[in-house]
Amino acid sequence: MKLLLALANLLIPVAVLVFATGFFPYKPFIPGLASHDQLSNYGPPPERHFDRLIFMVIDALRSDFVFSNNSGFTYTQSLIRSGEAIPFTAHATPPTITMPRVKAITTGSIPSFLDVILNFAESDTSSTLAAQDTWLAQIRAGRDRENDGRLVMYGDDTWLKLFPDMFARSDGTSSFFVSDFTEVDNNVTRHVPGELQRSDWDAMIMHYLGLDHIGHKAGPTSPNMIPKQVEMDGIVTSIYQAIETQPHLNSTLFIFGGDHGMNDGGNHGGSAPGETSPALVFLAPKLKRLPGRRESPVEQTGGFTFYQRIEQSDLVPTISALLGFPIPKNNLGVMIPEFLPLWQNPKDQLNLLLRNSQQILSIVKATFPAIDFSGSSTPDLCDDPSSDSQALACQWSTIQHRLDTYASSDMPISIVLSGLYRFCKDAQDLMSSTASNYDLSRLALGSALAAIATILSSIAIFYSLLLTNVDMFIFTLITILFGVMMFASSYVEEEQHYWYWISGGWIAFLRFRSSQKKINMGQIYSLKSQASIITLLILHRIIQRWNQTGQKFAGYPDIVTSILFQYPAALWTLVTITYLVAAHQISYSLGKHLHYGYFISTISAILLTICSLTFKLSFTASDAPELFPFLSNTSITTLQSLPLLALARTIFTFLGAHATILIAQAIRAPHISAYAVLSTAQSLLTLLVMTQSRAHNIPLFLLFSIQQSCLQNLKLTPAQLSATSTFFAHTAFFAMGNSNAISSVDLANGYNGVAGYNVIAVGLLVFISNWAGPLWWSVAGVAMLAEQPEQPSAGGRSWIASEHAHLAGKDEKSQEEPAGGELKGRYIAHLSMATFFTSASLLAVMVACTVLRTHLFIWTVFSPKYLYSMAWSLGYHFLVTLGLSGGLWALGKKDV
């Protein structure tokens, strides 16, 4: 049985990685740099209007931050009114993460969803664009200049990883150090005045991160947001005034905008309107030649749309035309038609759109080699095209006919121009919606391995429990229903409701089962047990209303926004109580299980708790000072001045020291119990996850502790405890504000105690922060399992014996630790249930992603869900359930 279980757990990570390599492959690209070809009848490309580019990215610059009434970009708005700035709302396709967005705005292509993972791995260099055609490579090639173009770059070091050895001068900053609002931008701005005085560069790129960091830490309504917008508008002012006054800049195109937006929580990565709607502004005195004038500020027309909405990739051919270099080979963008009037000769406009059409056509041909795009499609095929690609071929045939007719007749050029533009947009839509080049064999192999792991773990459960147990039948049914739910996009988006319903129903089921057993034995169901069930249900209701999450109800009132944020004194009262309870638990555990003595254990608990609470007060004062209306400005300033780095490191050092002593004693002591190790570890873990959680979520751990006490009063069977910890772990994950959207990943606590970016340290801290609730319940579940007294059994099917003992009423608290073999049987059966649920749920997600790979929401719903399944399987199950909880159990598991 143990061999089967071990094999099942080895297959899970293999299945995850095999499936991922088939589901998230790198997209192929056309190598080499594009060159200008001579078009028959239309000559060389038209003259360029600009010879220099300043490209400024303001990370997470949502459209309303620039264009709305409540904006700090007042100077920019004045340029829009004067006609010197042309505004757009860009559409950033998911995933709305920096790396794939930078790829889109430099190549014009649709990045792979795998870039979501590579975006978090800052040390990764496999996603470089060094070998791809981009507007940076075209400028550097300097095909129409005597010397190669020179580029300079300051800001987010994502650009340095994507474009190694591309820049003559650069100074990069880490995009993930979200605790910094100021220095990360000052480090960019300090280079600007000097570069504006120099004339030895052809393109200057800046990527500001402070606004994005404010969003991650405190949301779009943070009091720091408007001042940051004013600061960025000041940078725009200084650059534009230099363009107006300095001769060597008088033919400079200035573009600024966001790589993506942000949602109401300040995060991004998903497909919410706020995340996919960054602002985009073109600025230059020459743009006053364009017809029409615009008002600014204006009201949005819906979905954060201000002015015209364009695709973010449309930047690439537009920049190419304005600066006079070839369109990069992998571009799927369409030149923005508002700029065509800069070329007064209609034939020049036709020349530009024809080049854009032919460039996109080359990608379409490579994607659909079986379709004839020669322009000779027969009427039979075009009367009823068999596919979208065939319809596009027929559209190109019509364009070819119009071009021939235009050259030899008086056909209005506007008809040809509109046809070319329509073809480009239709080709863009087709290529953007074309399924990825999935490796179906790897998808099948990954799913097969997950299926084998599910079968092996179910066999292990059978040998541990015999599948006649009603509890196991319900657990299996819940797992199957969860798998079925993964095939519906709306259920995946709102998965939290499934776990809220399941957990509430499971509590009611436990009341029925426990009551039935007592009645069968002729006993009256105790008042204590009744009160515990009622308390569990009440707390469950409170917990599920703590944070609204998902897609449909994310902005609805909840306890945090409607009560705790409205009455901060109540928030900090609950936070203080939670810390006091945590201090008591640590003191009790250190004194009872590690034999520190009353004085030392109390002092240790007090110091740890004071340090952690002080850190959280200072952290929150820096991010959300509005949560301290009862403090004076001097007190808030004092809190903000405390050394967060030192405080966090002190907490982690103390926790690490106690954990080391715990491990040493467990190894050295001959009879230390599993419960002693686990309960001590749980008390220390509680302080860790509280440190890694936002202040408004800290009281949840108080509610979790009360739930645990209620569960201990119910004298549940081991099978019931294992199922309960699984259901409550998922409930806790969503109750803390998480969802299946990439945008809900919280980076705010990822740098606690870290001075600079370290992929392992930051990754671990981010995982602890986002999986704080499940992590707590994993250790709490095995702690309750170790505490549960059982009768020793002669055989290996210990849980069967425990069930008989429970039915016989032999479940009163025992002072003696159960036999080591009994403990071993409990954990193996618990692990069997956890492995079965993990592998079965993973299998369901894999099959859903495979079957629905052409679904409209494959990249916005199902792909993020698979990434979360990877985290649940590799991070939570493999590292926490097997590693942390299993290791702690093994330390205390002594045979007697």
Automatic annotation (TrEMBL):
GPI ethanolamine phosphate transferase 2 C-terminal domain: from which residue to which, for each copy? 435-893
Asked if the keyword Endoplasmic reticulum belongs to this entry, the reply reads: yes
Among its keywords, does the record have Ligase? no
- Pathway where this protein functions: Glycolipid biosynthesis; glycosylphosphatidylinositol-anchor biosynthesis
**InterPro entries in alphabetical order:** Alkaline_phosphatase_core_sf, Phosphodiest/P_Trfase, PIG-G_N, PIGG/GPI7, PIGG/GPI7_C
Q: Name one GO biological process term.
A: GPI anchor biosynthetic process
- Transmembrane intervals: 443-466, 473-492, 498-513, 525-543, 563-582, 594-619, 639-663, 675-695, 755-777, 834-862, 874-892
What GO MF annotations does this protein's record show?
A: CP2 mannose-ethanolamine phosphotransferase activity
**Subcellular localization(s) per the UniProt record:** Endoplasmic reticulum membrane
Protein keywords: Endoplasmic reticulum, Glycoprotein, GPI-anchor biosynthesis, Membrane, Transferase, Transmembrane, Transmembrane helix
Q: Name one GO cellular component term.
A: endoplasmic reticulum membrane
Membrane topology annotation: Multi-pass membrane protein
Give the signal sequence positions: none
Q: What does this protein do?
A: Ethanolamine phosphate transferase involved in glycosylphosphatidylinositol-anchor biosynthesis. Transfers ethanolamine phosphate to the GPI second mannose.
Q: Which family does it belong to?
A: Belongs to the PIGG/PIGN/PIGO family. PIGG subfamily.
Q: What protein name applies here?
A: GPI ethanolamine phosphate transferase 2
Query: What organism is the protein native to?
Result: Microthyrium microscopicum
